[in-house]
Design brief:
- Keywords: DNA damage, DNA recombination, DNA repair.
- It comes from Apibacter mensalis.
- By secondary structure, the chain is of the alpha+beta class.
- The chain folds into two domains: about 1-75, Beta Barrel (OB fold (Dihydrolipoamide Acetyltransferase, E2P)); about 85-235, no CATH class.
- Helices cover about 35% and strands about 20% of the residues.
- It has six helices and seven strands, in the order βββββαααββααα.
- It starts with a strand and ends with a helix.
Length: about 240
């Protein structure tokens, strides 16, 4: 059987001399692994479609038991203008790309709302000329809603946010002992489309640590992104 779907590229790896293993989150089938053969052929160079968070339309063979689905045709879908060329934006999407890729590997059922969230969030980042320094924090917070551990917003006037429980609290937990609730409240109420950043530099650094710890607490075998140090350099 031949199927067609839009897909967002999450990662890729060269396989043999001329093929690519491409991991995508698809619009119709969730997370899927594909093989793209003859990717580097001079006559039919398909590899230029394959880069992080590019949206493509693919036609593939689905009538085999192999977890790798063979791509028959590939075309460009939505065209992003700045997220891959602006050094700050590209560093941000590299960072969140690592997290999205590791957390969606078992999400092999269709979730159109999740697909649209990823795509529309990237579009929002793409069209912004300024005030996008907190996109990675904003994205990860709202991404957590789709993978099952979005914070409870009740009692946001309490001085602490309990990272283990994902709730606002009157007492500090053993993970974050500082009065951190104000940072979480700022992020929970932040509108990325507004003409301002959510945090100053020191707050951004603290919130990055907070949200990575939050993911580590709530996602089994979570690995901190390799690109974390690059992201920190960008915002230092």
């Amino acid at each position: 059987m031949i199927q067609t779907t839009k897909a967002i590229v999450l990662s890729f790896l060269k396989y043999g001399d001329s093929s690519l293993i491409v991991k995508c989150y698809t619009e119709k089938f969730g997370y899927k692994d594909f093989i793209l053969k003859n990717s580097f052929s001079k006559k039919n160079r398909k590899s230029h479609f394959i880069f992080l968070f590019n949206e493509i339309e693919i036609t593939f063979y689905s009538n085999n038991n192999n977890s790798l689905k063979l791509i028959k045709e590939i075309h460009q879908a939505h065209i992003f203008n700045t997220i891959h060329t602006n050094i700050i934006k590209s560093s941000i999407i590299t960072f969140i790309g690592e997290i999205v890729n590791q957390t969606l590997k078992k999400e092999d059922a269709q979730d159109l709302s999740l697909y649209n969230f990823i795509k529309n969030s990237l579009i929002d980042l793409d069209v912004k000329d300024s005030y996008f320094s907190d996109f990675h924090l904003y994205f990860l917070l709202h991404f957590s809603k789709y993978i099952g551990f979005y914070p409870l917003e009740n009692n946001s006037d309490f001085p602490f946010f309990n990272i283990k429980e994902g709730i606002f609290s009157l007492k500090a937990d053993t993970v974050s002992r500082e009065e951190n609730a104000h940072l979480w409240k700022l992020l929970l109420t932040y509108d990325f489309k507004s003409l301002k950043n959510c945090f100053n530099s020191s707050q951004r650094k603290q919130m990055l640590s907070e949200i990575l710890t939050y993911f580590d607490m709530h996602w089994s075998n979570f690995n901190k992104p390799i690109s974390l140090n690059i992201l920190k350099l960008i915002f230092d």
